[in-house]
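Researcher: Next entry: DUF3034 domain-containing protein (Caulobacter ginsengisoli).
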Amino acid sequence: MSRRLGTLLALGLGLLAADPCRAGEVVNGGKLLLTGGVTTLEGSGGGGLATWATITGYETPEGIGANVHATYVRTPDYEFRAYGAAVGLYDRVELSYTRQEFDTGDTGALLGLGKGFAFGQDVYGAKLRVVGDALYDQDRLLPQIAVGVQHKRAGQGAIIAAVGGRNDSGTDYYVAATKVLLDKSLVLNGTVRMTKANQTGLLGFGGNKDDGYSAQFEGSAGWLVSRRLLIGGEYRSKPDNLAGLKEDDWFDLFAAYAINKTVSVTVGYADLGEIATFDGQRGLYLSLQAGF
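Model: Predicted structure:
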């Protein structure tokens, strides 16, 4: 685990002593615990894999919220780390930055890259809530709808070109719709993403098989077991742009727990399918978010 990731985890764990808020309390006069989502692999507010229309933080329309976040995923052949920060402005605009690191470990030698070879990527995100309120519009079916953009800059451009990737940077565009059904304790989300990204961009953008944008779907369904605990599952479809490097859709099961109004922890089991010719990439992930 990198030193910077460890620092962020330590920061979040150091906040565990903060005064807990009562179950069911509206935080800062704004959102209920967990209804703003946690943090995705790419740093946006949402689930673990799927971006939601919610704006990160517990801010009201008159306030500002922010968080730091860190995610760790371990599969049989690879290790993934992400860490960064996000800001929510007036429950309308979200700005985020995340650094992703994909460590091939011993598998790197089998791939001819060298033991411990790592891919890296910087993700810069912006999201705008367009219409609706996922929480407070309980008297109508209209969900909260947001549009967003994520600009991604990957490292290892020479390797990306060697495996057939067309570019080492690219931009995703998405539309997300999120609805909280309080009477049923459900959180539902659907997102359509226009993307060229290979393995979210870590293996570049576009490829020798397909170099165009494709529409991909991200879905989440969660049950609010209590005001502090959300359990659910997610699905994320993926493009398949690189000849000889099959890319599978992703699935996960997760549990997100709000320790208090400052810190939340998400644990889950993710099935990432085949990555760089190695199938069966399934494992546990841990994500920590600390903010206000």
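Model: Note for the record: Residues 1-29 have pLDDT under 50 and may be disordered.
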